[in-house]
Design brief:
45% of the residues lie in helices and 9% in strands. By secondary structure, it is of the alpha/beta class. It folds into two domains: 81 residues, P-loop containing nucleotide triphosphate hydrolases (Rossmann fold, 3-Layer(aba) Sandwich); 175 residues, Transcription-repair-coupling factor, D7 domain (Aspartate Aminotransferase, domain 1). Helix 3 runs antiparallel to helix 4 and helix 8 runs antiparallel to helix 9. 27% of the residues are buried.
Amino acid sequence: MRRFVRREFDVLLCTTIIESGVDIPNVNTILIDRADRFGMADLYQLRGRVGRSRHQAYAYLLLPRHGALFNAARRRISAIRRHTSLGAGFKLALRDLEIRGAGNVLGAAQSGHIAAVGFDLYCQLLNRTIARLKGAPERPLIDVQLHLDFLDLTPDPAHEAQAAVIPRNYVEDESQRIGLYRKLAGVAYASEVRDLQAEFRDRYGPLPAPVRRLLACARIRLLAAALGVKSVATDGNRLLLGLGADEYLMVKGRHLRLHQHDPDDRLAEIEKRLRQLVAAKEKSDG
């Protein structure tokens, strides 16, 4: 390493150890082999080893010629290529959060406390704590998982017709998009879903279909919570309402059957069936 710094040779072949604070101003080019195997933070740190002086720098991310990339790896590479200006680190951190799970408001693909409870429940716990500190009434916890096999909840869906997400071309700024996901994950009342829908429309224009599906998912979670249901899943035409420990809410001893096939129509059908069950429960309780 010292000989390289003294310019006794022009190429240094090394491991990722160089990402730990190595500062060599005269280095202007880095080649990262199998960049698809690195995380966002690693790629950002490795890229930052060049261009530490006034000279133009270049970072080449080498990928397998014919190898297929995982969707997450492809999204990481795309984000690294996109964010190259000053302040890119913060935007990359937000994009990394979205890729690892914030885009899927039903997932728990995070780290630390978020991994333990899931992104949506984590946001609700945070909102409850803030409300308690402000002396506001305690908010209910909506701990309902959705597993709908006809929807794609990933941040970069392959088919828009099945997407339930906030598209990047609708809300371009990463921090705003993550903030909206956080609001959506933290809703506890139907009025908050309506307010969020109005906010989308006022700030960003008419709602695209993926956002409308995402809001429908939020309403379904609220209805399921009112029934004491812990999970809502679809298995073909069956609607599975899980109560926990392999126990299900059934109607006349059978799972509910869905008749619609289009994703939007199927979401509307699920919402309608849950509303009917909630109305029946309220009538029987009253």
